[in-house]
Amino acid sequence: MNGMEWERVHHVSLAVRDLERAREFYSGVLRLTEIQRPPFGSRGIWFQAGGQQLHLIEHPGGQALREGGIDTSDGHFAVWVKSYREAIDFLEQAGIAHKASPDSIAGFSQIYIQDPDGNIIELDAAYGS
């Protein structure tokens, strides 16, 4: 029996408590482009993120989805950025707390941030970029 042939990651979905607050962070602060979302029974927003998509789904009830600060061993999604230095400068100007590892043992520079709901986002770049 042959296995399934993988092509690429299409999207990542994250649960959020407040859709408008999430829209402001991802669109207003991180500057992702909002795209059309089908009229599902749930509330959500879709964004284009390079060749992939980011789907935000408002979690009913508004209860805490995650507590605590940046934990690099927790579930997260990662985005490759063109420049580590430009990403750090952008985050600092925007007042976004981050955990930076410019010389990470991963083989590339890593920066971790959180959205307003505590979802963790990893920003990766080539060493010295």
Automatic annotation (TrEMBL):
Gene3D superfamilies: 2,3-Dihydroxybiphenyl 1,2-Dioxygenase, domain 1 (3.10.180.10)
PANTHER family from the UniProt entry: GLYOXALASE FAMILY PROTEIN, VOC DOMAIN-CONTAINING PROTEIN
High-level lineage: Bacteria, Bacillati, Bacillota, Bacilli, Bacillales
Protein name: Glyoxalase
Domain of life where this protein originates: Bacteria
VOC domain span: 8-126
